[in-house]
Design brief:
The structure is a homodimer of 334-residue chains. With 334 residues, chain A is an alpha/beta fold. Chain A has helices at residues 5-12, 16-23, 32-45, 51-58, 75-89, 103-115, 133-138, 163-176, 192-207, 224-236, 249-261, 295-311, and strands spanning 63-68, 93-98, 120-123, 143-146, 157-161, 182-186, 217-219, 243-246, 271-276, 289-292, 321-324, 327-329. The longest helix of chain A has 17 residues, at 295-311. The N and C termini of chain A lie far apart (65 Å). Chain A binds a DNA duplex (30 and 30 nucleotides) through residues 4-6, 14-18, 20-21, 24, 26, 28-31, 34, 49-59.
Chain lengths: 334, 334
DNA sequence: TGTATCAAGGAAAACGTTTGCCCAAGTATT
DNA sequence: AATACTTGGGCAAACGTTTTCCTTGATACA
């Protein structure tokens, strides 16, 4: 049997309340003698608290849920890492969940996390659906949106990246370099992230008086396979293009691969630009020009924000929103 | 306030015990009428159980801890994914922890997990230290070792990969292809994983009567930078080599990069072979020959084993050990 | 001398469940 | 008619903590 506070109390001939006070350093009214006795017994019995019981009375579990689409997508481990580092620093632990962008799973996990009494939730939603009050009723717990924006009253806060500017700068860079027929191999257009990037894309085009052609917008998934498929589509459509702007680096890497396999020279025949700046981006041939996102920092800041909400509940803040800047990393594919 | 079982009891005019029995489908002795009434009230009040309280009495949290060196190393997300998928299937959730191969952090997390009453722990240990009884006393909970082996009584089980054979086959392949001066850019030699691979390396050499030269063994970390450093060392030492066997794909990818930057042709001048078969391995130029590990399956099987131990505690099994096979994936770097 | 203050620590309720035991009434068996 | 099950459901302990309020004795103060 694990030793409990009761065992300590018995052996030290004091009451459980006293033991609890001492162990929690609320020992203003305890003599040095008893304190030391209790501490000694605790150590000897190898006591570790049962946080379940503690949480039951204190109403906090020091646990936060992290709901992500898919940890095997290289974008998310870094985000998770940032979250875990900050959480650990603040004394919280992280429960993690993969949704595969499946709304059902999202709901299931939110449910699970509320049952486990998580103090808060950080989520990258699959689609930009509203956080309905119904859902929030389910999770009577602060929620932070991360990476992907969505409407919704009742969301505790948001940590986002300025996708409009990120895309704008990327496209502007291509335009300055003289590319004019720029394909956008995008993620799902249901996502606000994608929408914002499309905005940026259009804005840059506008500025350079290049007409927008919606045939150049290809909608797909944030997955490696999509890169190959997209290039196929381009060739099938016999589209005349000289640059490809990709929804993320994973897509970009497979686009580069597919283009090279088709005999294209990069960047001479066609330029490629990615998004994220995952580690691998600099290692492919040629090294990938990309829009760097502060991924680690997003995770880190999200936890920071969430814990602030958890621990200072009645601050009068209308909206919490962190918008992080991207940075264009110019390598050799443009 | 969240609604509790008590609220339901009041509104339905029954006792809390009855509600509990109904909600848990232990309603052999309950009339249809009351059951339906209780269910209706529960739904109407939007009840979700508080698993803290439940766990306190049932002594199980349906939570397992996953302790890994670093989730941003592409090997581990896939393992984590396998673990999470199986866990979710079995009704468990996962708490995850990054140690950065720091023994202190390992202990801290084990402590944390026992305090949170995790039902079991899966760990990739940083170094092959024994699971001392002291440590197991801390964690009075089943522990599964995954990926990296270590001695120790009291370990609940192990899920490993046959690293000796994996390395053996890789080296044999190189030898058959005619390469003779084979460098091993290894991970830390304190790890049993590395040791086993070194065994395999030697065995293959032996079989082909190629003398072993310990200058060809370079010890480092399982990180991308190590690949670059290792190649530098090779050139500095002016070592005559025609093949490089790498401790993992991340290293291999940077080795390929470094070699190409130095003007070497791959595989004509020097062959490179990796380990893991991460997704990126097939996307670099030239596509990487590598030893595929069933990473996802390791995570999956570890959870399977752990939950079996948790739920059937008094089986009389002396040792649980799963040794998974690797597979040589031949691409274009050899 | 009487009273207020203070230090040290105990008692017990509370947190939200589960579960073993008990009881009452009805039904079946002898 | 007496006994034995069965059905339906209540009671209360237990899980391991925290925390509020009390009690007791001692000391200080007027």
């Amino acid at each position: 049997m694990k030793t409990t506070i009761k065992d300590i109390a018995q052996q030290a001939h004091v009451s459980v309340g006293t033991v609890s006070k001492i162990l929690n350093k609320k020992d203003g009214h305890i003599s040095d003698e008893t304190r030391q006795k209790v501490m000694a017994v605790a150590k000897q019995l190898n006591y570790t608290p049962n946080t379940l019981a503690r949480s039951l009375v204190t109403k906090q579990t020091k646990t936060i849920g992290l709901i992500l689409p898919d940890i095997s997508n290289p974008f998310f481990p870094e985000l998770a890492r940032g979250a875990e580092d900050k959480a650990s620093e603040l004394g919280y632990s992280i429960m993690y969940c993969n949704t595969d962008d499946d709304v059902k799973k999202e709901d299931k996990y939110i449910q699970m996390l509320t049952e486990k009494m998580a103090d808060g939730i950080i989520i990258t939603q699959s689609v930009a659906r509203k956080m309905t009050s119904e859902r929030l009723q389910l999770a009577r717990t602060p929620i932070i949106l991360i990476d992907r924006d969505a409407e919704g009253e009742g969301v505790g806060g948001k940590v986002l990246v300025d996708n409009l500017m990120g895309a704008y700068e990327a496209i502007k860079h291509l335009l300055i370099k003289g590319y004019r027929n720029i394909v956008f191999v995008a993620g799902p257009l249901t996502s606000n992230t994608t929408k914002a990037r499309l905005e940026g894309y259009k804005r840059a085009l506008d500025e350079f008086k290049v007409p927008f052609n919606k045939d150049y917008i290809l909608e797909g998934q944030y997955k490696s396979e999509w890169g190959f498929k997209a290039v196929n589509q381009l060739f099938e459509k016999k589209l005349n293009f000289d640059a490809v702007f990709c929804g993320n680096d994973v897509i970009a890497i497979s686009v580069v691969k597919a283009l090279k396999d088709a005999g294209k020279l990069i960047p001479e025949d066609v330029a490629v630009i990615g998004y994220d700046d995952i580690h691998m981006a600099s290692l492919i041939e040629p090294p990938l020009t990309t829009v760097r996102q502060p991924i680690y920092e997003m995770g880190y800041r999200a936890v920071e924000m969430l814990v602030d909400i958890i621990e200072n509940p009645n601050q009068d803040i209308k909206e919490r929103r962190i918008l992080l800047a991207t940075k264009l990393i110019i390598r050799k594919t443009t």
